[in-house]
Amino acid sequence: MLGSRFLKQFASDTPPIRRAIIDGLIANADRTKLLLDAIEAGKIKPNEIDTTQVKRLTDNRDAGIKSRAVKLFAAAMPADRAKALADYQPVLAMKGDAAKGQVVFEKNCAACHRINGIGVNVAPDISDSRTKKFEQILADILQPNRAIDNNFVGYTVRQLDGTVLTGILAAETATSITLRQQGGKEAVIPRSEIDELKSNGQSLMPEGLERQIPPPDMADLLSFIKNWRYLDGRTPLSDGSH
């Protein structure tokens, strides 16, 4: 069956192809059920499906598909990530210091993110945070795999000589792929040298950052991400407390 064949090779497909596959499956009720089967079996992680596609599933006109999709995506959050977010809720009532938060950012985030001239853009751009609420920023930090843009899903490449590299697919041609790694380093790998290319279904951003960022430092980090534009002394949008 066509849908089954596409799902079988999904982990090795590149982001544009993965998006097209999911769109194609959702367009047909029988194929949509195959997709839900694959999610339920753990062959595709719920966070590998973008938010627009998730909405098409959870708002599906087919009541059976809708009910099943709602349950699958609701159950997708690991218990430890839900607990971390619950444990860090008091941070939202703390007054953060953006200047101190910049130091926290440099230490913990700059390998993949760039704000105010600090760090590199490997992961999604988080500098335009003016419309984001502190609750959303905190959830993005503590639950990095909750929803991932397919352009930033991590891939593992195993080369014929045994070398293993991880990163995001920054570019591809008929003869090579470009893997962007933490720190912004890029590796151009000829397709002829690739033994296996596989998505790991995870963000490059590690889970468990709360173990390195205690609550007061997290409040400072949130303030920096939200208010970095105002470090020159101008009035911030918010002081980080609620």
Look at the helices and sheets and give the structural class. Answer: alpha+beta
What is the oligomeric state here? single chain
Distance between the termini: 53 Å
Strand content: 15-25%
Sheet with the most strands, sense and barrel status = 5 strands, antiparallel
Rg, nearest Å: 20 Å
Could you spell the SSE succession in H and E letters? HHHHHHHEEHEEEEEH
Number of helices: 9
Q: Work out the helicity level.
A: 25-40%
Structure description:
The chain is α+β, with helices and mostly antiparallel strands and 242 residues long. It contains nine helices and seven strands; from the N terminus they run αααααααββαβββββα. A hairpin with a 5-residue loop joins β5 and β6. α2 (15-26) packs across α3 and α7 crosses α9. The model is unreliable at 237-242 (pLDDT under 50).
Task: Give the tags.
two-stranded antiparallel sheet; single chain; 242 residues; globular; 9 helices; alpha+beta
